[in-house]
Amino acid sequence: MKKLTQSMVAMTMLVGGALTVASPSMATTLKNCYYLFPNTPKAVSIAVKKASCSTQPGVVATSASATFSSILGNNKASDHDRVTAAGVTLAFEGSSFVQPLISALDTVGGTAGTFWSPTNAVNYGTYTGQGSTYGRNNVTGGALTVGFSDQPMTNANSAGTVPVGVTTSDYAQLPVALGGAVIAYDLGPALDGLHLSAAVISAIYMGTITSWDDARIVSLNGGATKGLGKKLKALPTRFKMIKPLERSSGSGTTFAFTDYLNAANHGLPTGVTAGPSGSVLDTRHWGATNFLGVSGNAGMATALSSTIGTIGYLEYSYLLVPYNAPIDVAMLQDKAGQWIKPSLTSIQNAANAGGSSITPDNFSIVFLKAAKNATTTPVWPLATYSWAIIKKDQSANVDAGTAAVRFLDWVIHYGQTQANSQGFVPLPFAVQNYGRHQLMKVVNGSSVLLTAN
């Protein structure tokens, strides 16, 4: 078996430029014209270059003026994203997909030594990754300051993402992480890298493929007399039964998984559309009879590490945890037909293929083809963004709201320099800019909370 290792990135800090809203009319445009660190998964240091200066119309400024200087989000001593009031308590929870990154960047439990260092101690509970549906429901229900979800709230193209009675325009939603999910399994030693097509994966979850030595799997892996196909035929009988894993509660990773199968045109259950992560896709939907339910990506990783015959869908960064190293990962076909394994490069290629117009109504980047060199550029078919959701009106607790938007702005700028080390890809420039625009909509009355002074 191969052990997937972390790739580190040496990134250059955000320097120079300014982001300005001048608003005598209270409804002018927001310019983004500032320097950004290069977005690359390679472990190299590259000179800073200026991002293109563009104007996004229709972003309303609700204060007389708000000027973002180059210090905002650069993590230096003068970075105002690190300024907080004393005694602030923040409640963050939700997606287990983004848990490794957020847990690395925030001050979990108020402990020292983490990356975000605000002027005053900020109190947190421990981020446990209870799932995207939990994050959405509890930020809209008022129990969370920020909810994290891999599937943002939208009325446009997915059912089950907007809690009852919620108006999505009351919330700012922004991507905070870019990662990938994998199809993983446990078959003992020497069987890493099985080829599994979307059709085969769907058939496993639908219960029409129940054994690892099924002819369709063997055929994809060299046939019965050579390669991994031969090893599948030689598995002990007790290892041959396939045990599909499913998430036991609403899950953004489940959304990405079903979205991938749907985009690849292979067999979602009858009556089920991609992305119903407000409910569980259990055996009543899928058709297989021997499912094992697990809680969160951590639960999925544990089951894949300890139960022979299992198959499941798992966030890529969980493979970097030392005791998860033995988990075997399938090779998947991208839209161009190449068989590829997951990597930070192929995940970034998926974001590149998805383009810059990422919004809650247009966010899926699964099963895409590269715009150029499609037959040679590997594009991971199970890539996805993870989102933060925060209420726009923070008048009930201004100090907490201010600290939250400053933390999130820091995460989507300097915090992205830590993305590779946690198994994620730094957010593209346009997505970082979009996120800052969304945070500018979080207010106390007529005052924008995200300012540089």
Structural class computed from helices and strand pairing: alpha+beta
Mean pLDDT: 79
CATH structural architecture of the domain at 182-354: 3-Layer(aba) Sandwich
Quote the beta fraction: 15-25%
Remind me, CATH topology of the domain at 182-354?
D-Maltodextrin-Binding Protein, domain 2
CATH homolog superfamily of the domain at 182-354: Periplasmic binding protein-like II
Number of alpha- plus pi-helical segments: 12
State Rg.
Answer: 22 Å
Low-confidence stretches: 1-67, 271-283
Question: Termini, distance in Å?
Answer: 53 Å
Helix content: 10-25%
How does this model look, in words?
The chain is of the alpha+beta class and 453 residues long. The longest helix has 15 residues, at 398-412. Helix 11 packs antiparallel against helix 12. The chain contains twelve helices and 19 strands. The protein has a domain at 182-354: D-Maltodextrin-Binding Protein, domain 2 (3-Layer(aba) Sandwich). The termini are far apart.
What is this structure, in a nutshell?
The chain has helices at 99-105, 132-140, 198-206, 215-220, 227-233, 237-240, 252-263, 283-286, 296-306, 344-354, 398-412, 429-439, and strands spanning 17-22, 30-36, 49-50, 54-56, 65-69, 88-90, 92-94, 122-124, 146-149, 171-185, 243-247, 292-294, 310-315, 328-329, 332-333, 339-340, 383-391, 443-444, 447-448.
